[in-house]
Design a protein that fits this description.
By secondary structure, the chain is an alpha/beta fold. The protein has one domain: TIM Barrel (Alpha-Beta Barrel), CATH 3.20.20. It has helices at about 35-50, 65-75, 95-105, 125-135, 150-165, 185-200, 230-240, 250-255, 255-265, 270-280, 290-295, and strands at about 20-25, 55-60, 80-85, 110-120, 140-145, 170-175, 205-210, 280-285. An 8-stranded parallel beta barrel has the order 1-2-3-4-5-6-7-8, surrounded by 6 helices. The longest helix is centred in the middle third of the chain and has 16 residues, at about 150-165.
Length: about 300
């Protein structure tokens, strides 16, 4: 996210609805196009310690790149540890060693979540294995694989897996964007995912791959549009019954940024707390999402 630089001594206020909401997922980009670890760490620390640092959440790091991230953090001497979301990309067996590295570098890193992709037939045995690797103070996040389009049976199985993940006490994760068109789920898929998660009444949801504040409109049959951060927040609010303005599906499909911002302005502190319990963090590739969009909508001063 494009964040003005500034000293941590003079931060600008960020409302509770947005506090620590935006995770930096730059390190999950394809290696051919991703910025270097040094650039990502430098930008993350600058944003976190800048004027709008209250908006910045965790640094999302694949386990395979953890040594490089530790090296860059040590070189940067951060004012406080970076909150880390560890993404398993080298197999569950590598998790204990990775977490040991994180815990041994407590001045540089604080572990928040361990995140991994699940097999299509994810079951309680596999989920229990994940839980065994993750300490109690760290949240396990599991991404059931979403099927290809026009696969009703596959979609049904995916939503069953989402419910199973939530019922087991893990946080279900949805990829909402990426380099391929197939990485972007339909509005119906996002809505069904949120409904499946909330049906269990346990924990929250994790969304990754957002790259804009407000949804854009599809321009052709080959481009279905990209999901917006604001749309997701409003959809969760409506599913929880906090916003009587319309349906969650309508929120996910809306391009009315000003209308959604006004709707969020009406929320009580209690409603905000409930929304953020369900939606604690969102993974965003920082570069394409300017702070100016949030300022223009009146969500940041």
């Amino acid at each position: 996210m494009t964040v003005p630089s500034g000293s941590s001594a003079d931060p600008w206020p960020v409302r509770p609805l947005l506090a620590a909401l935006v995770d930096d997922t730059s390190l999950l980009q394809p290696r051919a196009t991703a910025p270097g670890v040094d650039a990502v760490v430098s930008r993350y620390l600058s944003a976190r310690d800048g004027h709008y640092g209250g908006l910045v959440g965790r640094l999302v790091c694949p386990a395979s790149q953890l040594p490089a991230v530790v090296t860059e953090l040590a070189r940067s001497s951060p004012s406080r540890p970076a909150e880390l979301a560890l993404v398993v990309d080298t197999g569950l067996g590598a998790v204990p060693k990775a977490l040991s590295t994180v815990f041994s570098r407590s001045s540089l890193l604080t572990p928040s979540t361990v995140e991994c992709a699940a097999p299509p037939d994810v079951d309680g045995v596999w989920l229990e294995r994940v839980s065994e690797f993750v300490p109690e103070e760290v949240t396990p996040v599991v991404e059931p694989r979403r099927p290809v389009e026009d696969d009703p049976a596959g979609t049904k199985a995916w939503l069953t897996a989402v419910r199973r993940v939530a019922e087991h006490g893990c946080t279900p994760k949805l990829r909402m964007g990426g380099p391929r068109a197939s990485d972007v789920p339909t509005v119906d898929d996002v809505h069904s995912f949120l409904e499946a998660c909330l049906e269990t009444g346990r924990g929250g949801v994790s969304a990754q791959g957002l790259d804009r504040i407000v949804r854009d409109r599809p321009e052709s049959a080959d481009y279905r549009g990209r999901h917006g951060l604001l749309n997701l927040i409003v959809a969760v609010s409506r599913l929880l019954g906090e916003s009587p303005s319309g349906t969650a599906r309508e929120a996910l499909d809306s391009i009315d940024g000003e209308g959604m911002a006004r709707e969020l302005d009406t929320l009580s502190p209690e409603a905000v707390a409930r929304i953020r319990t369900v939606l604690p963090r969102c993974g965003v590739d920082p570069e394409p999402v300017p702070i100016s969009d949030l300022v223009a909508l009146g969500l940041l001063d």
